[in-house]
Amino acid sequence: MHVAFFSTHAFDREFFDQVNVTRHHDLHYLEARLTPSTSALAQGFPVVCAFVNDQLGAGVLAALAAGGARMIALRSAGFNHVDLSRARELGLSVSRVPAYSPHAVAEHTIALILTLNRKIHRAYARVREGNFALDGLLGFDLVGRTVGVVGTGKIGAIVVRILIAFGCRVLAYDIAPSPECRVMGVEYVPLDDIWTRSDVITLHTPLTTETRHRVDAGAIARMKPGVMIINTGRGALVDTPALIDGLKRGHIGYLGLDVYEEEEQLFFQDLSSHVIQDDVFARLLTFPNVVVTAHQAFFTREALRAISETTLDNISAFEQGRRSGNELY
Ligand code: NAD
User: Fold this and answer.
1) Is 234 a catalytic residue?
2) What is 2-100+300-319's CATH topology?
3) Average pLDDT, rounded, for the chain
4) Pairing between strand 146-150 and 93-95?
């Protein structure tokens, strides 16, 4: 099928072209992000392929449908950026990639925990400057520490498995607790217990109206002084100004973010020669105990291969009038 492929990066081309050798779709790569002003680029394409920071609100969906689109093929697991009820009204099929490599995101989560704890980000810079002093690099043993995992789906369950192997005590909160996690020894507790009892808190739920800004000033106030907070889920799971306030007061001891509420203005592009206009984000970068990665948790070879295969198979299924099982309704 003819596919308008938005927000293309070199890595997308590499993996999609490899996988498309056996799928034979016509992929029209566009570097532009999908926004109200770029939606016209999809004119005449029956399929629009979009990533996490493309805008798929009501107006863009209407423009795409008017331009001939019949299917939105998301190459992401998250779909909080799509107005699903409007898409359905417009008769658009919307599919996603529900699982590609949950290991990629889980392992990146652990990388953030270890980096922050052992201050690898600071040690790396220091040693390169010929500074071999250890002052300020003191960490703690993870064994025996209490980690609160919010969301024990595909990604959260792997995080749990790794943490249990480290010898951590794992508390979890999920609206649908996982029997597999219970067998591993996880204690499911109310959310407030996650806040009050955890040394490390890591977020793995989707972004919904219920989970938006779940980590806010009230939640932070309930947490242990010196708590480590990790967010590889979605930026808006946390209230960033409240995190900054907690960091300034020293109540939050460590913060690891792979996602940021306003990331669509920043991530997936090289802005190293520009002045960052987002003051909240710029403030985050000033803390020595904050590590931010630019939505790269998913970014492994295995994940990109799986994303390409599932996305193109979803499009093939649509072309053949079959359901792939990855449709959102
Ligand atoms: P999943 O659907 O397998 O698991 C989500 C879990 O959250 C489920 O167990 C569900 O019951 C639980 N949940 C849903 N609503 C909840 C609520 N209100 N309160 C408590 N628990 C709730 O999803 P997954 O594959 O584990 O992915 C989780 C999230 O990670 C995705 O939604 C996405 O936003 C994010 N993600 C980030 C990256 C990245 O690169 N940083 C990559 C993939 C996914």
Assistant:
1) yes
2) Rossmann fold (3.40.50)
3) 97
4) unpaired
